[in-house]
Amino acid sequence: MLNFGIKDIIDILLVATLLYYIYRLMKRSGSLSLFYGVLFFTVVWVIASEILGMRLTGTILDKFMSIGLIVLVILFQDQIKRFLTDLGSHRKWYRLRRLFRHGSNQEDNARNHAAIMSVVYACMSMSKSKTGALIVFQRKMPLTDYEKTGDIIDADINTRLIENIFFKNSPLHDGAMIIADKRIKSVGCILPVSHDMNIPKNLGLRHRAALGMSQVTDAVCVIVSEETGNISVAKDGEFSIKVSALDLEHILSEISKI
Predict the structure, then answer these.
(1) CA distance 7 to 147
(2) Which residue has the higher pLDDT, 81 or 200?
(3) How would you list the strands of the sheet with 238-240, edge to edge?
(4) Which of 249, 176, 257, 247 is nearest to 210 (CA)?
(5) Helix then strand then coil, % of the chain, to nearest 5
(6) What is the mean pLDDT of the segment spanning 177-192?
(7) Beta-strand (E) ranges in the chain?
(8) In 3-state terms, what secondary structure has residue 253?
(9) What is the end-to-end Cα distance of the chain in Å, rounded?
(10) pLDDT tens digit string along 109-118?
(11) Would you say 213 and 234 are in contact if contact means Cβ atoms under 8 Å apart?
């Protein structure tokens, strides 16, 4: 007779939680089929080696699991980095840290709102003139490696500065702008391009780069289309198309760091 206690329930819950996080991570990165393949292989390995006691098959699968784990770490190092960052920077922990902070946040809130509105006004202006733009907002996960791919400027967030950087004749208009810690950190940055086949064909390279960035990091990416002037937002591996000024302000207000 099997003994099933509290420890077994906790064990099952831990495994289920881990699988859920891996599933969500793979779904965001467009690698869901790979997740199902790895899950199937793991189930076969457990059944063969642990339940049925097939020693030869279990030994062979053990070798494959050891090598396969190293290969997966190499292939999905960005996704693993994001998973660990999300795990350590969960909003509950963030709220808990805020309980130990002292002093008024009114000044910070005013500064945040001013920076948000500067970006919103710039995007609306570029939308009217059909000026292409790609702006990345850092959240919990550092974007230092992506900042280094462009030109570091470390400037205050300003509507006219953003418009001038993305002006079509500007030498810095190509690539993405990264905003972190309430400052424009870098411009002309190179982002990872998503190869998701479900992206509509009418969306260009800026949208693919924004989606790719939102898949491998927790950043929020704002895109202004050069063809249509529409404003889109890529967040958590998903698109919001034709975003209004009010919606954009609301989305950016939810970001803890800009």
Answers:
(1) 45
(2) 200
(3) 151-156, 183-189, 176-180, 133-137, 220-224, 231-235, 238-240
(4) 176
(5) 55, 15, 30
(6) 93
(7) 133-137, 151-156, 176-180, 183-189, 220-224, 231-235, 238-240
(8) helix
(9) 58
(10) 777 788 899 9
(11) yes
Scanning the structure block, which residue is given the tokens 């509105």?
Answer: 117
Q: How far is CA 53 from the centre of its chain?
A: 42
State the pTM of this model: 0.65
C-alpha 48 chain-centroid distance: 37
* 144 HSE (CA, 13 A, CB side): 1
CB atoms within 10 A of CB 169: 5
Question: 1: pLDDT confidence band, cut at 50, 70 and 90?
Answer: very low
The predicted-structure confidence for 221-251, as pLDDT tens digits, reads as follows 999 999 999 999 999 888 889 999 999 999 9
CB 258 within 8 A of CB 137: yes
* Contact assessment for residue 199 and residue 186, using Cβ atoms and an 8 Å cutoff: no
Question: Which of 202, 242, 197, 196 has the alpha carbon at shortest distance from 215?
Answer: 196
Q: Work out the angle at residue 218's Cα, subtended by the Cα atoms of residues 212 and 223, and round it to the nearest 5 degrees.
A: 55
Asked if residues 229 and 215 have their Cβ atoms less than 8 Å apart, the reply is no
Amino acid making up residue 142: P
Task: Give the separation between CA 228 and CA 200, rounded to whole angstroms.
Answer: 14
Tell me how far apart the alpha carbons of residues 101 and 2 are, in angstroms, rounded to a whole number: 50
Q: What are 69's strand-pairing partners? A: none
Q: Which is more confidently placed, 162 or 53?
A: 162
The token pair at 189 is 């940055």
Strands 133-137 and 220-224: antiparallel
List of E strands, 37-105? none
Over residues 45-52, mean pLDDT: 74
